[in-house]
Amino acid sequence: MTNQSMLDRYLATVAQTKSAATLKATQRDLRAFLAYLGPATKILQVQPQTIQAYLDGLLAQGQKLATVKRQLSSLRQFYQWLLQRDLIYQSPAQKIKLPVNQAPVLTKGLTAEQQAQVLAAAHRKLPLAGQVALQLMLELGLRPTEVLALTRTAVNFETNTMTISGEAPRVLRLSVALVNKLNALENDNRLSNCDILIKNQDNQPLSINGLYYWLRVISAEVNFKVTSGQLRLTARNRVTKDATDIAKVQQQFGDRSEITTIKHWHHDPTHLRADYQRYFKR
């Protein structure tokens, strides 16, 4: 009996006793595990260390602990079903342990090589609006909400600047490469009645889900996870590296608190302000 035929038989029994949602989740979890095993590994011969390595790998990839626990539950129920039919003599999933609490994943900025990969992937896979959105986050450190709220009038092509609205509007300088992309996008938008800069394929304002979809497309293309927070941190690292004025960096990124800016400061702590010293001593 093949791995797939055993899985099909098990899913048929699940369908008789569980809800459609449970069936769908179980099917997704077990098929992902079979894909991990590959055709050469028999599901009846799986060892506990194989399952442990699979689940640890999912956590390392950034999957939430609750999701991985659900996948372990799916595996335990499946192997219990095999055990009840005397197809195995003990369940390899029964004694698997997962952490009680998930350690926070620290966001890291992209290296120069990774930035080049991301930009190249955006050029290959995204429409012009997607390329502009990604470059705005990578170069200027804009938040997703700021990117989606940009209007065509926010760009000043005479001064090569962009105005970010908010409680304290910010005027940011643009690189030549970004100006060229924005100019091309403006030419595409000339006949549009919509004033929003970043639009979807239907010429409507892009949703937050649409922006995250573009990031997932890029992640799949470059083989590492790309997030909006990571892009913003990359921009922050570049700007603060040679900065000497905390207030200017705070204004660049729209930080409400000076402490937020100082947390990413690259200079010797002896040069920081007294309130920063007090903050970390309390």
Strand neighbour order, sheet with most strands: 1-2-3
Distance from first to last alpha carbon: 64 Å
Binned, the helix content reads: 55-70%
Which spans have pLDDT < 50 for at least 5 consecutive residues? Answer: none
CATH H-level homologous superfamily name of the largest domain = Intergrase catalytic core
Number of structurally distinct domains: 3
Class from secondary-structure proportions = mainly alpha
CATH topology of the largest domain: hpI Integrase, Chain A
Question: Which CATH class of the largest domain is shown?
Answer: Mainly Alpha
Instruction: Please report the number of helical segments.
Output: 13
Shape: elongated
How confident overall, as mean pLDDT?
Answer: 85
Summarize the helix and strand pattern as letters: HHHHHHHEEEHHHHHH
Our estimate of the beta-strand percent is under 5%
Radius of gyration computed on alpha carbons? 25 Å
Tally of strands = 3
Note the main sheet.
Answer: 3 strands, antiparallel
CATH architecture of the largest domain: Orthogonal Bundle
